Automatic annotation (TrEMBL):
InterPro entries in alphabetical order: AA-Vitamin_Transporters, EamA_dom, EmrE-like
Pfam families from the UniProt entry: EamA
Gene Ontology CC entries for this record: plasma membrane
Transmembrane feature ranges: 12-31, 37-55, 67-84, 90-112, 124-143, 149-167, 188-207, 219-238, 250-267, 273-289
Family: Belongs to the EamA transporter family.
Protein's UniProt name: DMT family transporter
Major localization listed first in the record, in broad terms: membrane
Record membrane topology: Multi-pass membrane protein
Source organism: Anaerosacchariphilus polymeriproducens
UniProt keyword terms in alphabetical order: Cell membrane, Membrane, Transmembrane, Transmembrane helix
Compartment annotation: Cell membrane
Stretches assigned to the EamA domain: 9-140, 152-288
Length: 313
């Protein structure tokens, strides 16, 4: 039963990443008519409404102190992460930020060990992480870009990765409360939208009816709001609840891989040997990171071995 649930958790994580890996196309199209903050706000408004219509029942907390965790999750996973990522892209190359954001699973791993103390350190994770980073670098730069450090942009990218790692830990904590996953995600969205209001006021924000009702804009906003936000955040949070923060986070490595493949099919971009090699290395890194550390003996055999050793001596 547990194995079936774990398999479902992995499948949910893969489906989520398949959608998240294609969102750059929708965002790229929408940026022709909307500012980044406008897209972000509309996206999560749609996501919140979709979750409310699907499961309108109000969430009643068992402990008022849990409200702080929900607020922090909304601040980190919705507001700060997306704002930091979007602002980072205005300072640095997309390829730089793509590689930096992919470090999020490493930070999640460290935080999980420090804060949750439930997921032990494994050598296979670090080897897999190194392989995935090399692969992602090959995919991102692809021989056409030059890696140039930009202190402000790259620093914001690192902050975004850290914030997402914190969000993963907070989501794991929320999963332990036993609430309905749709209600949990909707409450996270609520706080994300609340914390987003200052950004809407201070940063460029534009909504015009004419551009909003364009079929192509409506389609892409719906895709981002309903698919990439409402459905994907629910499935991602559920995967974290089942698999843990670390095991779920390593699927982030696949985002550049999905991006390369969808670019080839939709944007007709060529897949080079470097991006193909990077894809292979990234997949190998993912497999290694998910691999469990082998134990020399199970508990029963180890106890019997010690007992026989003591009896001989």
């Amino acid at each position: 039963m547990k194995e079936n649930k774990n398999l479902q958790g992995h499948l949910m994580a893969i489906i989520t990443i398949l959608i998240w890996g294609t969102t750059f196309i929708s965002t790229k199209i929408l940026l022709r008519d909307f500012t980044p903050v406008t897209i972000l706000f509309i996206r999560f408004i749609i996501g919140y409404i979709a979750l409310f219509l699907f499961y309108p029942r109000a969430l009643k907390l068992n402990d008022k102190k849990q409200e702080i965790i929900f607020a922090l999750a909304g601040l980190c996973g919705v507001t700060l992460y997306f704002l930091l990522e979007n602002i980072a892209l205005t300072y640095s190359f997309a390829s730089n930020i793509g590689v930096i954001i992919s470090v999020a699973p490493f930070f999640t791993y460290l935080f999980a060990n420090k804060l949750l103390r439930k997921e032990g350190l494994q050598k296979s994770f670090f080897i897999g992480f190194l392989l995935a980073m090399i692969g992602i670098a090959f995919i991102s730069f692809n021989g056409s870009s030059v890696f140039k450090l930009n202190p402000m942009g790259d620093f914001l990218g690192i902050l975004a990765a850290l914030v997402w790692a914190v969000y993963s830990i907070l989501t794991k904590k929320l999963g332990e409360y036993g609430y309905n996953i749709v209600q949990t995600t909707r409450r996270i969205f609520f706080y994300g939208l609340v914390f987003m209001i200052p950004a809407v006021i201070l940063l460029p924000f534009n909504i015009e009816v004419g551009t909003l009702i364009k079929p192509i804009n409506l389609l892409n906003l719906f895709y981002l709001g309903f698919g990439a936000s409402a459905i994907c955040f629910v499935s991602w949070n559920w995967s974290i609840k089942v698999l843990g923060a670390v095991k779920t986070s390593v699927y982030i490595y696949l985002v550049p891989v999905i991006t390369v493949i969808t670019s080839a099919f939709i944007l007709k971009e060529q897949i080079t040997w470097l991006s193909a090699l990077g894809t292979l290395l990234t997949l190998m890194g993912l497999i290694l990171s998910e691999r469990k550390q082998k134990k020399p003996k199970d508990e029963t055999n180890l106890i019997l071995f010690k007992q026989s050793k003591n009896s001989v001596s």
